[in-house]
Amino acid sequence: MRGIRVWAGLLGLQRTVVEDGTTGSEGEVIVSVRPSFRERDRCGECRRRCGRYDRGEGRRRWRALDLGTTFCFLEAEAPRVSCPRHGVVVAAVPWARHKARFTRSFEDQVAWLACNCSKTAVAELMRVAWRSVGSMLERVAGEARCRVDVLDGLRRIGIDEISYRKGQKYLTVVVDHLTGRLVWAAPGRDRAAVLAFFDALGEERCKRIELVSCDMASWISGPIAERCPDAVRCVDPFHVIQLATDALDEVRREVWRQARKEGNKQLAKEMKGARFCVWKNPENLTDNQRTKLSEIQKTNGPLYRAYLLKEQLRQIYRVSPRKAEKLLDGWLEWARRSRMPSFVKLAKTITEQRPGIMAAIKHGLSNARVEQLNSQLRLITRRAFGSHSADALIALAMLKHGGLCPPLPGR
Ligand SMILES: [Zn+2]
Question: Any idea what the Cα angle at residue 213 is, between residues 208 and 217, rounded to 5°?
Fold first, then answer.
C-alpha cells in the first residue's frame, strides 16, 4: 500500500514501524506494525530490555481508534521475553498497555468519555461492551497513579464511606479538603481499609496531616488517633445534619403510626406526604411544600418541634465559633427535654462528639465540597461494571474526581 508513512501519523503511532496496511474481509482496516528497534524485546511489566524467550502465540491484533466510520486494527508479532524479575512475559509494545487488546489511544479516549459521558454513550460511540470498559479504566488509572503521586502534599483530609450495589457494599474514600479531589479509595469500610490508606501515605506524610474530618464511627477515629496523633479530628457537618434528619424522620414515622392506629386516615396520609417538606432545607422548599409546612405547624406540634430542632442544629454551622458554642448548649438542653426519644438520643451522641463537632466549626471545615464529591461519587457507583466491580469503580472515581483523567489522544 502506498504512503505507509501516512499511517503512523493517521494512527498517532510513536516508536513504531508501519509495515503494511490492508483491508480485512469485513471491510476493517488492518495495519501491520512492529516496535521500533529500541522498543523491541522489553518486559511487558517493567519495560526492561530482556532476552527473547519464544514467539509466543504468533501474530495478534489490537483494536485501534476507528478511521472515520471504519474499524481499525493493529497487527503485530507478540513474542515473549524472559525478565529476571517478572519471568516469561509477553513483550511490551509501544502502542498498547500490557495485557490490553486495545491501543493506548483507544483506551485513553474511552477513559475520557467515561469521565464525561453516560455509560450508553461510551459503549455506543466506541462500539465496545461496557464490561470491557471496566478493565480499560483500571489500566489507564493504574498507569496514571504510577506517574502522579496524588498523596503528596496532603494537609487536610476527609475520610468517608460510600455505599454501592444498593447499599450492600462499601468503599472507603479519602478526599483532599484543599483541592476537593478524591485521593484514595478502597473496597470495604473497616479499620483495615483506613489503616491501608495510612500505610500508603507513609509515616513521614502522616505527621504532616493537620486535620482529618470523618463521621462519628470508631473504625475511622481509631486509626486516626493511632497514625496521626497530632491531627485535629473534626466531625463532618453533613453527618451531624444527617443524624438530625434521621431523628426527625423517626418522629414523623411515629406520628404516622399513631394516626394509623387511631384510624385517622387523613393525618396518616399527610404524614406520608410530609416527608419531603420536613427533610428539605427551608430555602429549597417549593410553594406547595411551604404551605404544607405551615399546616404541620398548626396541626402537628411534635413534628413541627422536631423540624425546628433540625433547623436549629443547622444554624450552628452558620455562626461564629463562639456563638455556635452557645447555640449548641441551648440546642442540647432543648433536645434533652424534647420528650422525643430520637432527639434525646441524638443529644447524647452530640454531647459525646462535641469536641469533633466544635473543631469542624473552629477550622471552618466546608461541607459543600465533600458533600458535592460524595454525591458525584454516588452517581458513579450506580454504574455496574460486571464481576470485578470494585476495582473498575475505584478506577473511574480516581480518573474523574482524582484528576487522573487523560487528555483526548492527539490533543
Ligand atoms: Zn520485568
Answer: 120
Compute the distance between CA of residue 37 and CA of residue 46 in angstroms, rounded to an integer.
18
Each residue's pLDDT tens digit, 30-52: 999 999 999 999 999 999 999 99
- Judge whether 75 lies within some domain: yes
Cα of 25 vs centre of ligand 1, distance in Å, is 37
Range of the domain at 10: 1-100
44 CA to centre of ligand 1 in angstroms: 6
Is residue 163, in this structure, part of any structural domain at all?
no
60 CA to centre of ligand 1 in angstroms = 21
Query: 3 alpha carbon to ligand 1 midpoint, in Å?
Result: 36
pTM of this structure: 0.86
Give the span between the Cα atoms of 357 and 352, in whole angstroms. Answer: 10
Q: What is each CA distance from 231 to 234, 321, 344, 356, 391, in whole angstroms?
A: 9, 19, 31, 12, 30
Is residue 215 in a domain?
A: no
User: Alpha-carbon distance 404 to 324, whole Å?
Assistant: 39
